[in-house]
From TrEMBL, chains A, B, C, D, E, F, G, H:
Its EC number is 5.4.99.18. Belongs to the AIR carboxylase family. Class I subfamily. Pathway: Purine metabolism; IMP biosynthesis via de novo pathway; 5-amino-1-(5-phospho-D-ribosyl)imidazole-4-carboxylate from 5-amino-1-(5-phospho-D-ribosyl)imidazole (N5-CAIR route): step 2/2. Substrate binds at S12, D15, R42. GO terms for biological process: 'de novo' IMP biosynthetic process. It comes from Microbulbifer okhotskensis. It is an enzyme of class 5 (isomerase). Catalyzes the conversion of N5-carboxyaminoimidazole ribonucleotide (N5-CAIR) to 4-carboxy-5-aminoimidazole ribonucleotide (CAIR). Keywords: Isomerase, Lyase, Purine biosynthesis. This is N5-carboxyaminoimidazole ribonucleotide mutase. One of its GO terms (molecular function) is 5-(carboxyamino)imidazole ribonucleotide mutase activity.
Length: 171, 171, 171, 171, 171, 171, 171, 171
């Protein structure tokens, strides 16, 4: 069986700078991914064709980013039974509109919603990696290792802070 | 040419009690209408087929009611170039989620959004009547007459209130 | 009969940069339009005179833009039985005040509300075109064609993105 | 000169139960008042006529109650230069829509906004009494006396509570 | 009797740039005013002394500006029976915290709340002028005249816009 | 390898009536599940032990339900690298506090958030099934079949509605 | 030195049913407390006298409960340098107004704010106990013991749930 | 007994510029403090170890700053029975997410929440000083003195303003 991949869909190419945070995480875990600019409203047929095709080709999870009345993740979730992750983009109202449009889905058509903006873009990628890792022990181990490295980075930042504070107090 | 009609779509049959307020207004203006329970997410193909067909059969305007992450009006607007009116239903968060999911549409795919709940259901029907009336002088005149009657009803309520207050003061 | 036109009303000339997005859309569809700076509160009589006159001269739809306690669209809807489209302008509170003041109209006086700001300005014009198109087959066809062109533009953006990503990966 | 009076306007007779809290306060201060059911949107001309007439007859302040996209106070403030007090009514969204539609008025057309619902209805009457009292020493004294009585009522409630708590502890 | 004056209180001198919009309006109507930086929380006694004294010296209305948990207007209203006008300042949360802290007063202690920020500062001054004008025919006439001038200014802006649009179309 | 199971954690046994909606969905798909009442704050060690143990025993996904400052899902996500699904419970503020506390997670610790309350409880179960189905073709097929059945149920409801409306019109 | 006590202030006796949750917690820890109905706005002098006196008599912490534009905690914090704990009461807008009016205090006048309503009333008492416990080892130990007991109660509830579920499955 | 100290924890070193406002206040009162960058989610064990250790070493109060789904203060409060003060940081949604995640704690695990951002950082330090001062008469006196100095600073600002206004009027 071919390696599973992640499909990242964006309602507009203006979402690209936010979603690049997801690319970096997926690359870190060596997860192949595709990126597609397609709109639930303006290119519904292209969206439908792409999702149906990606689903058949072994897509493990879809990541969908959209702002305002963010319907893209919901529309994709209506098309596939693979897990769909929604990233609300801050286009107006601080992203509250996109958050509610993404998360408040009716029973039967779930969207796994993450935080608004860049933090959400990152976590969408982590979540996709966890979904792949739930049946792939090697991927799961990579996640365990990466989290430990992350913790160590914070501990290092704290160690640096302690030094800075000591110097400040020494003056 | 056959008489234009209005199509009323609801995401769930639980929206029926709210939307009956629209039926009454349309009946008052002798506007034929169809009612359809269909979901943007759970029956996307049935929704698409119905809208495409209704559009061809002379539907003048679509009224779409949905709650939570209310995508129905947006999905219908993506399918037709007829005017689409969205009624946000209060399913949670006092209907704020449905309002934002309905009104915050991206450029090119408009939804004419009205108030949350029953007031919105009524106004969706009035708006549909105004759209038909914009090219149908007889319908327009009906709207003018009905508004005058409405104003008179409020003036009558005020007259009754003045009597009630006088009686109260006379005591 | 003379060609129907659209009237665009603004509560303040500071709304002009936002509303120019509507001018562009109407020009694309060759829909004649008038622009008027007039206030529901500061020039109520001028507003009333203009709307009554425009209504008689064949105005097909009114587009009203206002911020804060945005009453302009409601006041116009109280004066005419033509469809009235409301564009909430972000003057404070991210435009939430203008949105609620525009959309939450009582039964009988509808305002077809669109998104806050520029996306709403565009969609107000699209909606006006759809209203005209509901009884004008030629206009309706223009809308169908323009939407197809829009879809193609997104598909072209996606094609460009695929190229960019391939180059990036090739490095 | 005839005694100044207060005019209370309501967008709907369903607001009457809330606004009766204002009647009680005005009666306590022997301030004559008129009550009018009239709508900014459904009976704009009747509203305009009434306000213009009341203004000439010596109305000292207007109290306007409305829910949802509450435009009544704003429309009255656009018609008169007497102080206009707005009471937001909770018709939906916990009254947040009515609050923002009432308070966020543009420069030049002020509305003196008070709390949502019954507390606001009371305070509208107190504020009207204060406005009359600002040039009427007798009224001002009544307000001073009434506030002292109110304070004593709270102190009495506290004294009762202390007794209740002592009894509870004695058990 | 000496001429009535308006007292403007600010919780912090950082509110000065916003409140200068009120100074201009009061100067236009030749209304004398005092300006005081004083805090409900940090200088409660100075606030109390000033308000009690200003009240006795003939202050017609108090204007109180504060941000965040804006208690200044409420504290002043608890000290005087003169009308108290509250201006919510945007210090955080777009000023929603200041708005709710100012407007949601309990029965018996009213605060006449106006819009958040500069529009509110202006309207606080207009409202104070209306309160003075409610028993001062000359002031009332000034308000009537100024409003007419304001309306003419908007009509002039519209006339200029019509010229601009014609030139644009002529090209 | 033993069959993967789902662990459902609740911050309080008062969340049980909402979460039973998830049990039904999991039973429909024959997915084994465990239910645990445990609190991020009141029993952090019990929570940690249970999650670590369940993770080792082959738990495929964790579903965490909590209200107010809903930290349970976040705390679980900090303990395991398996996918964690968060269900915000409406305990106050219509559940907005629980939604934001669940979804706004920092980068690296994702929570797959679903809708507030019962719809979210259902979708948490669907999402867990999709995660299992992403590497289990049989489960995936069950999801495909169940969605088709769901669509047919809506189409049947619509058919019934058409009959009801015909009867109503026939009268 | 006499035993430190806690003073509980309420803006209205209608807050009593919510605040009784605090009484229970304080009684569990044998912390003496006083209860006072007093208003920041309606009885500012009585509030000031009571707080000054209680402060001198050895009050360790003040708990202040109020709804709407909840200024009581802020006013008390302006009067004393003892810790002041604020409990927002849900009187309108789901308590969001009381929360923001309580928590958003300017620098120098802190209010230790807890959750809206009953959970907040309980936590105000726990927090007061922790403040006393910060210099009273016996009290601190009581808190440690009580928390352990609380954890055991949750573990017992979970054990009961496991039994219930087994019985259900056995059927 | 050694002098009690305050522990300041931050979820991220990006919170440092905001929290430096707390350092200044603590230094003014000669209160020793420690600063720690540690995360509830990314370094839960380091957080737990540090808090347990600081608690034993005589920490009088914990100040915890975090943004978004701000769980740090809650996690610390679950670990210690010392008072825990939460500072919501504005990372998104104007800090409303962090405020609700911090303040809406369930009964038994209190977090003393202060304002969003810099004002909150300051007040966290004042509150910690008040907690120490509740059993340390010298510290309490420092707080009394500092508040008087603060009041005098505001009075001096007002005196300066009066001079500025006189000069302006003299022109």
């Amino acid at each position: 069986m071919s390696k599973p991949f992640v499909a990242i869909l964006m309602g507009s190419d203006s979402d690209l700078p936010v979603m690049e945070a997801a690319f970096g995480v997926l690359e870190k875990f060596d997860i192949p991914f595709e990126v597609k600019v397609t709109s639930a409203h303006r290119t519904p047929e292209a969206t439908h064709s792409y999702v149906t095709d990606a689903d058949k080709r072994g897509c493990a999870a879809f990541i969908c980013a959209a702002g305002m009345a963010a319907h893209l993740a919901g529309a994709v979730s209506a098309t596939t039974l693979k897990p769909v992750i929604g990233v609300p983009i801050n286009g107006s109202l601080d992203g509250l509109d996109a958050l509610l449009s993404t998360v408040q889905m009716p029973g039967g058509i779930p969207v796994a919603t993450v935080a608004i903006g860049k933090a959400g873009a990152k976590n969408a990628a982590y979540l996709a990696a966890q979904i792949i890792g739930s049946s792939d022990a090697e991927m799961h181990q990579k996640l365990v290792d990466e989290r430990r490295a992350n913790a160590e980075a914070i501990i290092a930042k704290d160690a640096q802070l302690q030094k800075d504070l000591q110097q400040r107090n020494a003056k």
